[in-house]
Amino acid sequence: KAGVTQTPRYLIKTRGQQVTLSCSPISGHRSVSWYQQTPGQGLQFLFEYFSETQRNKGNFPGRFSGRQFSNSRSEMNVSTLELGDSALYLCASSTVDRRLDTQYFGPGTRLTVL
Amino acid sequence: GDSVTQMEGPVTLSEEAFLTINCTYTATGYPSLFWYVQYPGEGLQLLLKATKADDKGSNKGFEATYRKETTSFHLEKGSVQVSDSAVYFCALSDRTGNQFYFGTGTSLTVIP
Predict the structure, then answer these.
(1) For chain A, does the N or the C end have fewer beta carbons within 10 angstroms?
(2) Helix (H, G, I), strand (E, B) or coil at B93
(3) What is the pLDDT of residues B33-43, one digit of tens each?
(4) In angstroms, what CA-CA distances link B48 with A102, B4, B39, B87, B88?
């Protein structure tokens, strides 16, 4: 079974631009979660989507948004990029409930904001 | 709010040494607890988990016991190998499943 894939793997943007990251979960997984990993703040939860609906949300500004499609693929969008948005963005999928099910992580998208 | 605190690294051990990485949590009710591992150049992988008090998670020689009385979930391994060199993250899913929190990570280096 193919793992979680994320595209692109690397991105370089400038302040003020917007960016869209993509995540394809493991086949059959309906829950997709996004996390931001930075050296200063560590791993922080952004949001979780389940069956095309945002089920949970972390404490991030509205510039961070996402969506999920009927095939469970998910996209994350960051508008008006700031230098502090430079991070590794990780996507994870699980079958239904990440409290009980294993979350499988993708390799991440490394975003650099100049 | 809920949170996870794990011991600072980096940790350097000789092969076959005993490993303990401390993790304590703050949460309302009964969260689920996890240890994830990130090998160099790779993504996070679930190492083990426990979903209720007194549960013991185990995998690849690693163990952790969910201790409600001490709000802890310490990771242990009796004899580490060079291949165990990685960053280890303690994590918590709150009782509703709405939020997921990671510790800051502990870097482990095992030397031959």
Answers:
(1) N
(2) strand
(3) 999 999 988 88
(4) 9, 16, 15, 14, 11
